[in-house]
């Protein structure tokens, strides 16, 4: 059984005033996850760089800033979002790929940490006299597999160890004394052993770089990838994950007199559990299966359609009336795509038209992955604040918003 951390009365008040569907986030959950992360990694000089892609609303980013985080930006737009709420310089890590010279120039001009995906870019940067103050390289080890990210040999991200070594050799010859290293090879991963294994590999590589090129490794960004308990029976042991990293750090680095800072770029772990997509049953249909049609669609939450991922559903009206009967449903949206389904063959309380269904764990990669297929207008976002109020942090999109970029003459 998964509980909803936002009071039901607040959800119903929001529905009454604004209608459905909408995303709503619990600020206290976000703060709690941040505190858990900081506490678990307190054994090292640690900093979290929240992955903006998970939830780019400036109100959410402001919570990160108020809790001493940095941010990880994948695009110039994400850097600009970070700047809107006051992030500056080394509090922004620019982790992009297929990066243009103009994008590099923008990030370097603002003093961001430049996390280079394709190591050979460093030569082009120097040729164009764009010299970052803070340079980091993204390693693709080619040896890690994860259910979501797959075999790292198949990943478009990062550079090989030899490519990075060549780039570091070039930098050392050009007087660069300190760099950072990074890898991101797991997603929604809860197995502490995997974190221990890949960080030990990364730490060993850092030591090789130090020994061979006599440069300092200022920080090691071990990526994000910590999962959340989407299934009611799931459990994420953050202490065990941090402990596995700690063991690898002590074994490979600290024992050799090396104590680089450790950075992370967690997104899902910080905001995922905070979010709920609230939607209403608008149609019941029965053919070869029983369907519950809701007014949200995969344009509001793409993960179940894209990954067949599980999101827990709570029918708060069925619970309120003490519904004892159950039915097996496909819970579907209205897009002209057969994969527009939030749940397949899901056992739920017998549901009725007008029932409110709360879809759990939508605070990361939910609204941020929204789109306008079929002319679906993107829906609003709300924040349930730590002082017990509901604040609208994004209004519903309108037709005018949708068409504002259309050129006249039609």
Automatic annotation (TrEMBL):
Task: Give the keywords, sorted.
Answer: Amino-acid biosynthesis, Decarboxylase, Lyase, Lysine biosynthesis, Pyridoxal phosphate
Top class in the EC scheme: lyase
Question: Which of the residues bear the PTM N6-(pyridoxal phosphate)lysine?
Answer: 53
Q: Does the keyword Lyase apply?
A: yes
Q: What are its cofactors?
A: pyridoxal 5'-phosphate
Q: What's its catalytic activity?
A: meso-2,6-diaminopimelate + H(+) = L-lysine + CO2
Protein name as annotated: Diaminopimelate decarboxylase
Q: Which organism is it from?
A: Halanaerobium saccharolyticum
């Amino acid at each position: 059984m998964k509980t909803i951390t936002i009071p039901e009365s607040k959800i119903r008040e929001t529905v009454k005033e604004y209608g459905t569907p909408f995303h709503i986030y619990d600020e206290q959950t976000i703060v709690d996850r941040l505190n858990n992360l900081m506490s678990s990694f307190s054994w090292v000089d640690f900093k979290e760089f929240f992955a903006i892609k998970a939830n780019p609303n400036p109100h959410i980013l402001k919570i990160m800033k108020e809790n001493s985080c940095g941010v990880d930006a994948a695009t110039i737009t994400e850097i600009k979002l970070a700047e809107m709420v006051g992030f500056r310089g080394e509090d922004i890590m620019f982790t992009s790929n297929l990066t243009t010279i103009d994008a590099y120039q923008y990030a370097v001009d603002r003093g961001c940490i430049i996390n280079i995906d394709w190591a050979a870019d460093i030569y082009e940067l120097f040729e164009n006299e764009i010299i970052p103050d803070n340079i980091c390289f993204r390693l693709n080890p080619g040896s890690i597999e994860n259910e979501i990210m797959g075999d790292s040999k198949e990943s478009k991200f990062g550079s090989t160890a030899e490519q990075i070594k060549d780039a570091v050799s070039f930098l050392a010859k050009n007087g660069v004394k300190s760099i950072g290293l990074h890898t991101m090879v797991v997603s929604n991963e809860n197995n502490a052993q995997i974190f221990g294994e890949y960080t030990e590999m990364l730490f060993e590589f850092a030591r090789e770089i130090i020994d061979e090129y006599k440069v300092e490794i200022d920080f090691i960004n071990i990526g994000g990838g910590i999962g959340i308990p989407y299934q009611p029976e799931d459990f994420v042991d953050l202490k065990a994950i941090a402990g596995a990293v700690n063991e690898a750090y002590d074994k490979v680095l600290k024992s050799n007199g090396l104590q680089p800072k450790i950075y992370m770029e967690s997104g899902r772990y910080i905001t995922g559990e905070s979010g709920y997509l609230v939607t209403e049953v608008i149609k019941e249909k029965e053919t070869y299966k029983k369907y519950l049609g809701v007014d949200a669609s995969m344009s509001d939450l793409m993960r179940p359609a894209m990954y067949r991922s599980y999101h827990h559903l709570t029918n708060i009206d069925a619970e309120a009336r003490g519904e004892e009967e159950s039915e097996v449903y496909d819970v579907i949206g209205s897009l002209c795509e057969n994969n527009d389904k939030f749940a397949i063959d899901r056992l739920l309380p017998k549901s009725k038209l007008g029932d409110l269904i709360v879809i759990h764990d939508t605070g990361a990669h939910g609204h941020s992955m929204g789109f306008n297929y079929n002319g679906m207008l993107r829906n609003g976002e709300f924040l349930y604040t730590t002082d017990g109020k509901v604040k609208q942090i994004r209004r519903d999109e309108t037709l005018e918003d949708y068409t504002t970029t259309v050129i006249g003459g039609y």
